[in-house]
Design a protein that fits this description.
This is ARB2 cotranscriptional regulator A. GO terms for molecular function: siRNA binding. InterPro entries: AB_hydrolase_fold (IPR029058), Arb2 (IPR048263), Arb2_dom (IPR053858). Residues 211-264 are annotated as: Disordered. This protein is α/β, with parallel strands linked by helices and 420 residues long. Helices cover 46% and strands 14% of the residues. A hairpin with an 8-residue loop joins strand 12 (357-358) and strand 13 (367-369). Helix 1 (2-19) packs antiparallel against helix 2, helix 10 packs across helix 11 (295-306) and helix 11 (295-306) packs across helix 12 (308-314). The longest helix has 25 residues, at 92-116. The chain binds 2-acetamido-2-deoxy-beta-D-glucopyranose (2 copies). Residues 216, 218-219 line the site of one 2-acetamido-2-deoxy-beta-D-glucopyranose.
């Protein structure tokens, strides 16, 4: 296609020049203007797209020729190589689309693992959804609402991740352990926690926009048959021409679509509040812990603002990993900040060793190092520390005696706050 176009351009130029040969300086000017005009109309990016292979990708991991090995690493079934992003050299857009298509398959794969490997059950939301209504879902262990002792709730960050994932990039390039929530779920269940996995980013379904009807068929009925036929014929011609032009102009135009929000789940914050109101707050469990990564931390603080008393009554510890919550922007009152001081810990990306205190300029939860400078790895790197932290919180809860140093830290931090 590209070659044909170049030949076309060159021959046009040649013909134009040939026609103008005897002319004086004026004629030459005209030629170069025409040439410039012609060239300006060629959009290089559009030309690139014309050489792009169709955006059709495999629908399953097998068809992609990848599988997860026994270490949970994604490997090519024949070569054993990790995922190769640059499948086509120099076709970045196409490679990106291919990567996204693989990502969708990964999401389905992780959903499957949650059910088959972790024995979680899928629960659709909203709870009173009709059959044809768009739905979201969460995953819960059998005992999530009946476990009398403890419940662990997992919230991932924003973006393409879905239930069960911390980072898609890690799942594809590293392994399932670092990129998914599966190790947290399994360890939690082993330690006797009920588990709820939120799905905060599934906020709407995408449907293709209905095409505008050019002519209503119903209104044509009283026209004479012959005239109608002629009209239909010419309409078909017009459409054919238009489609051809459209295809030529924009060969891989993405489908026009619109979003239909999922009721009571149209944002991460609304989803979390809904799950709190319909599940967590109604469960008989005494001690709830949260693990929240990145934007999930902000979502937790938002829940706290909306349900302060309830959260304080049920939640005993919150492990944040590189949380992006912002107590200045969010409408946080002092009673919440004080609670967070005592019941939250934020494992942040840092060059310091794991669990080393990291100075915080904010009057909210204490920060410690996650032992990595990579944002997406913070949950996996602080895995053991987080479970230790929860165990300590549970023990403190059972003895009802607060360690003395907590009090000192708190007052010294408060002084710092007042200086800010
Ligand atoms: C048919 O035409 C009438 C006006 O003649 C219009 O009011 C009506 O909406 C049209 N029907 C459809 C289905 O477009
Ligand atoms: C769920 O959505 C419906 C309809 O938009 C609304 O009336 C209802 O209050 C919502 N319920 C909750 C718990 O948010």
């Amino acid at each position: 296609m590209l070659v044909q176009l170049v030949i076309f351009v060159l021959s046009t130029v040649w013909i134009t020049m040939a026609q103008n040969q005897p002319g004086g300086p004026e004629e030459k000017d005209k030629t170069s203007t025409a040439l410039k005009d012609l060239l300006s109309r060629i959009d290089l990016e559009e030309l690139m797209k014309k050489d792009e292979p169709p955006l059709k990708f495999p629908q399953t991991l097998e068809d992609f020729e990848y599988s997860f090995n026994e270490k949970g690493q994604l490997r090519h079934v024949k070569t054993g190589e990790p995922y190769a992003f640059n499948y086509h050299e120099d076709l970045h857009r196409w490679n990106q689309k291919r990567y996204e298509a693989l990502g969708e398959i990964i999401t389905q794969h992780v959903y499957e693992l949650l059910e088959k490997e972790c024995n979680l059950k899928k629960v659709y939301l909203p709870v009173d959804a009709t059959d044809d209504e768009p739905k979201n879902f969460i995953f819960m262990s059998e005992d999530a609402l009946t476990n009398p002792e403890k419940l662990m709730v997992l919230i991932h960050g924003s973006g393409v991740v879905r239930a069960g994932q911390w980072a898609r990039r890690l799942i594809i390039n590293e392994d399932l352990d670092s990129g998914t929530q599966i190790p947290f779920i399994k360890r939690g269940m082993e330690e006797g926690y009920g588990v709820i996995v939120l799905n905060t980013n599934e906020n709407y379904i995408e449907v293709e926009k209905p095409k505008k009807q050019v002519q209503s068929l119903a209104n044509d009925t009283d026209e004479p048959a012959e005239k109608k036929e002629r009209k239909d014929e010419s309409q078909k011609e017009t459409k054919k021409r238009r489609d051809f032009y459209e295809k030529y102009r924009n060969p891989q135009k993405e489908k026009e679509s619109k979003h239909i929000p999922i009721r009571n789940n149209s944002t991460p914050e609304e989803h979390t509040l809904y799950v709190w109101d319909h599940f967590i707050s109604k469960s008989s469990v005494k001690n709830v812990v949260f693990v929240a990564h990145s934007y999930g931390g902000l979502v937790f603080v938002e829940l706290m603002i909306r349900r302060e008393t309830e959260v304080k009554n049920k939640v005993i510890a919150v492990a944040l990993t590189d949380s992006v919550h912002n107590v200045w922007h969010q409408d946080t009152v002092k009673s919440i900040l004080d609670w967070m001081q005592e019941h939250c810990r934020n494992w942040v990306s840092s060059s310091e060793p794991l669990d080393a205190p990291v100075e915080s300029m904010l009057p909210d939860c204490p920060r410690v190092s996650a032992g990595t400078e990579r944002h997406e790895l913070t949950s996996w790197k602080s895995f053991n520390s987080i479970f230790k932290y929860f165990t300590q919180a549970l023990e403190a809860q059972n003895t009802e005696v607060k360690p003395k140093f907590t009090v000192t830290t708190r007052s010294s931090n408060r002084k710092k706050t007042e200086e800010l």
